[in-house]
Write a structure and sequence with these properties.
The complex is a heterodimer of chains A (233) and B (407).
Chain A (H helix, E strand, L loop, with lengths): L1 E12 L2 E12 L3 E5 L6 H8 L7 E6 L2 E2 L5 H11 E4 L11 H12 L4 H10 L15 H13 L5 E5 L7 H16 L3 E5 L3 H6 L2 E6 L2 E7 L15
Parallel strand pairs in A: 3-8, 3-9, 6-7, 7-8
Antiparallel strand pairs in A: 1-2, 1-4, 4-5, 9-10
Helix pairs in contact in A: 3-4, 3-5, 4-5, 5-6
Chain B lengths: L1 H23 L1 H36 L6 E5 L7 H11 L4 E14 L2 E8 L1 H7 L4 E4 L9 E5 H7 L6 E7 L14 H8 L4 E13 L7 E5 H7 L8 E6 L3 H14 L3 E5 L1 H43 L1 H9 L4 H39 L9 H22 L6 H6 L2
Parallel strand pairs in B: 3-8, 5-7
Antiparallel strand pairs in B: 1-9, 1-10, 2-3, 2-9, 4-7, 5-8, 6-7
Helix pairs in contact in B: 1-11, 2-9, 2-11, 2-12, 9-12, 11-12
The chains are: A alpha/beta (233), B alpha+beta (407).
The complex binds adenosine-5'-triphosphate and magnesium ion.
Chain lengths: 233, 407
């Protein structure tokens, strides 16, 4: 079942084609890596999928709805309901505790529920750090809070723009382990990364260059092998 | 049921976010709270003084002399009973001083002078600006009197000197000294039954720069006794806490209720009092408006800086699915709490400020308007929220994709 389909999607800034005629479809429960050199259009693409931006031309079908022509109010609503976002910078609210940061996502989505937020933190191994402020958490811990926050409303797709970009190897493998668990639970995962090792863990990897998909690699054969337990033992 | 419970928990989260932002970012907000608090201090202080100025200055002006002169209508004099009626009519709380005067011609060394018999302690309250060398007279040692500086000069009197006054008792006919009689015979005539004479001592010498310097001031009861008469005042001088309008209202009331009296407001005094009051109140009003504007500007600046500083946080909330109006509501909520904190702090500082001003300038306490507490706080909440609207609207221009991508 297709959860996402991009049809002839282009994004044009003046005379620069950040995305040029992209065609891509992703099945529900897939784990996709997007790689490519700097400026190739990875962030542009993930922003369009994540309803933070709209394409200049082409259409984007997300869970059966064309989101390419929606206004910003509707995009906000769709993003809230279907998308979980993780950024390279951790982007936590500095004056709220870990658990409160998770609850913020619940608050904007529907109802804050502290118990549920605590469970989400426990899932990423942060039960004992729930009452800490972001400044009192390590980078890896902060990113795990972000993951808990991205997942709290049970989104259909988890989008990450270089989610491990600011992490050391140990934290990187912790985060990848979490992704693996989420994948087992059936969450669709799309991750932009510069790190070949992180890129290799996915079932499928696409390579962007100058706004075009230049390679689309099926990795299901090696899927689940890379990064396993690395840094843990 | 379920629904209501859920609503409550959203509200709780809202408060948690707003309060968290204020409490955990407190050091950033001190300046804003301080600006609001100072504004509220000056506002509540000035408004308190504004309401108290008429009362304060009214009493202050009373040191410039009587502002209501009450004369008898026609030939009759004012009796003690009428004086009492007048006092009750005006009300003792409004009376600073109320001195009846009886003028009596006497002779000193065969020259005519006038004794003003009065209630000296009341006269002192009426005229605190009189310069008195020595002491004010009182109603205990009645033979020690005050003399005007002009009399003291002509008679060569100093403090402690004595002089003798002579005159004709009330209702008797004065008989002039006759050239054809010897001095001895004249003296005998003066000492006759219808005449009085008394030795008085100078207790104080009065300088006012006015007609008072030509009078002798003595206790009115002593004077009555001296001339063998009951209380009969020629005039009553009153110093009353009231503005021009209040005085003319009072005059009308006196005329209506005590027809034997004829009140006259001292217009020169009451008018200048009203002019000074009006100017002072206009000044206070102006300063208040300026303070409000300055407070608004500083809140505006603070909120603009705050929105800029928190662009990422705002972008993040929007990325998490927050609608603009929710984020703006949170920032305005912070504004309300800022206004509340600053306003509450300021009200109490303002009362303290007004009290100090009042004690220093007027030498007395002040009446606090309790209603000023909620009003000031409400005014500052409104000011903060109003000044925040434009900065907070910038939330709409923050695009999460652009803000969250960078650096
Ligand atoms: N708002 C914008 N206005 C103009 N040009 C833009 C804008 N956003 C991106 N671009 C351009 O579009 C191209 C693709 O940018 P994008 O951010 O998608 O690259 P990327 O693949 O994410 O790069 P990186 O790996 O460095 O993050 C770049 O050339 C960039 O300069
Ligand atoms: Mg990028």
């Amino acid at each position: 079942m297709k959860i996402l389909e991009l049809k002839n999607v282009s994004k044009i800034y003046g005379n620069l084609k950040a995305l040029a005629d992209i065609n891509l479809s992703v099945n529900a429960g897939d784990w996709l890596s997007i790689m490519g050199p700097s400026g190739s259009g990875k962030t542009t693409m993930i922003n369009i999928i994540g309803c933070m931006d709209t394409p200049s031309t082409g259409s984007v079908i997300l869970d059966g709805t064309d989101i390419s022509r929606e206004n910003s109010v509707n995009l906000t609503r769709i993003r809230r309901d279907k998308i979980g976002l993780i950024f390279q910078q951790f982007h936590l609210i500095s004056y709220l505790t870990a658990v409160e940061n998770v609850m913020v996502a619940q608050y904007y989505h529907s109802m804050p529920d502290e118990e549920e937020a605590m469970e989400a933190l426990a899932k990423v191994g942060l039960a004992d750090r729930a009452r800490h402020l972001p400044a009192q958490l390590s980078g890896g811990e902060q990113q795990r809070v972000c993951i808990a926050r991205a997942l709290i409303n049970s989104p259909q797709i988890l989008l990450g723009d270089e989610p491990t970009g600011n992490l050391d190897e140990e934290n990187e493998s912790i985060v990848v382990d979490i992704f693996r668990r989420l994948h087992d639970e059936g969450v669709t995962i799309i991750i932009v990364t510069h790190d070949p090792e992180v890129g290799d863990v996915a079932q499928r990897k696409i390579i962007l260059e100058h706004g075009r998909v230049v390679d689309d690699i099926d990795q299901s054969a090696t899927f689940g092998e890379a990064l396993k337990l690395k840094g843990k033992s | 049921m379920e629904n209501r419970k859920r609503k409550g928990s959203r509200k709780k989260m809202y408060m948690r976010m707003v309060a968290g932002s204020l409490i955990r970012r407190a050091s950033r907000l001190i300046i804003a709270v301080l600006a609001i608090a100072i504004g509220a201090t000056i506002l509540s202080g000035l408004v308190t003084i504004y309401y108290d100025i008429p009362e304060q200055l009214g009493r202050e002006f009373r040191s410039y002399g009587a502002n209501l002169i009450v004369l008898p209508r026609g030939e009759a004099k004012i009796t003690r009973e009428t004086l009492g009626k007048l006092r009750n009519l005006i009300g003792t709380d409004k009376i600073v001083g109320m001195a009846p005067y009886r003028y009596q011609t006497v002779k000193i060394n065969e020259q005519p002078y006038i004794i003003a018999g009065t209630d000296l302690s009341q006269a002192e309250k009426n005229s605190p600006f009189w310069y008195v060398e020595g002491e004010w007279g009182n109603s205990q040692e009645t033979s020690r009197v005050m003399v005007g500086s002009e009399i003291a000069r002509t008679l060569g009197l100093k403090i402690g000197d004595s002089f003798t006054v002579q005159g004709v008792r009330y209702g008797e006919k004065a008989e002039a000294s006759r050239q054809d009689l010897s001095a001895e015979e004249n003296l005998k005539r003066d000492l006759a039954r219808q005449n009085f004479h008394k030795k008085l001592t100078v207790r104080g010498i009065v300088s006012t720069g006015g007609a008072e310097e030509g009078f002798i001031f003595a206790d009115i009861d002593m004077l009555d006794e001296l001339i063998s008469d009951t209380f009969r005042a020629d005039v009553i001088e009153c110093s009353i806490v009231a503005d021009a309008a209040g005085l003319s209202e009072l005059s009308a009331k006196i005329e209506r209720e005590i027809p034997e009296l004829q009140p006259r407001a001292v217009r020169r005094l009451t008018q200048s009092q009203d002019i000074v009051l009006g100017k002072l109140q206009a000044l206070v009003l102006l300063v208040t408006v300026v303070v409000l504007i300055i407070t608004m500007i500083s809140v505006y600046t603070t909120m603009t800086a705050m929105v800029a500083e928190r662009r990422r946080e705002i972008a993040l909330k929007k990325a998490l699915g927050a609608e603009n109006k929710l984020v703006m509501g949170e920032l305005l909520g912070e504004g309300v709490l800022l206004g509340l904190t600053g306003g509450a702090l300021g009200v109490f500082l303002g009362f303290e400020f007004a009290l100090r001003v009042s004690l220093n300038v007027f030498g007395r306490g002040i009446n606090f308007q309790i209603a000023l507490i909620p009003i000031t706080i409400a005014v500052f909440i409104i000011i903060t929220v109003t000044a925040s609207i434009i900065p907070v609207r910038r939330v709409m221009d923050i695009h999460p994709a652009i803000v969250l991508k960078g650096e």
